[in-house]
């Protein structure tokens, strides 16, 4: 998950526990926070009430608890005959986690009034050119969009919040009939065909008639 500001960071730390500890997921959740831009900036954040946290985070009951009377092996070496199967199972589990992610966002919004989506759109309905960002770049680029709109430029913004599993369908719908996509990546893929986000965007639109 990518956070745009301090409030989203705070909300998504709790969200991360909610998703990761779900029996339907049981996978690690990473909340991406931009170093310095978010970690070293003071901004107002609305804290949750204790009652809200208790409503959102059920009591954690591990499926495979460690107990001396019931010894188990965890994190053992996977030999070649099962390693590939294990990785495929991880991939399938990650893909299946999307429904739980959407549900957790809905529940979060119902409790604190802030609703999150895999792809957040800003002034994109009639945009011919769309900026695509992750993390705190989104708020910065939204100011650029406002300035360009004032000059008559039909631009908009798509902020990718959910990185994996990638929200392919939501992204394609959000792009709509835009003619130009400007991807601002947070990283580079050494020796690759652009940054990680740009590579995903290119692959999503590969079969489109109007590329």
UniProtKB/TrEMBL annotation:
Gene3D superfamilies: 3.40.50.920, 3.40.50.970
Pyruvate:ferredoxin oxidoreductase core domain: residues covered: 127-208
Xref: SUPFAM superfamilies: Thiamin diphosphate-binding fold (THDP-binding), TK C-terminal domain-like
One function term, GO molecular function aspect: oxidoreductase activity
A matching Pfam family: PFOR_II
InterPro entries recorded: PFOR_II (IPR033412), Pyruvate:ferred/Flavod_OxRd (IPR050722), Pyrv_Fd/Flavodoxin_OxRdtase_N (IPR002880), THDP-binding (IPR029061), Transketo_C/PFOR_II (IPR009014)
GO biological process, one term: response to oxidative stress
Keyword DNA-binding: no
All copies of domain Pyruvate flavodoxin/ferredoxin oxidoreductase pyrimidine binding, residue ranges: 2-99
The keyword Oxidoreductase belongs to this UniProt entry's keyword annotation: yes
Keywords attached to this entry: Oxidoreductase
Coiled coil (UniProt feature): none
PANTHER family: PYRUVATE-FLAVODOXIN OXIDOREDUCTASE-RELATED (PTHR32154)
UniProt protein name: Pyruvate:ferredoxin oxidoreductase core domain-containing protein
Organism, as annotated: marine sediment metagenome
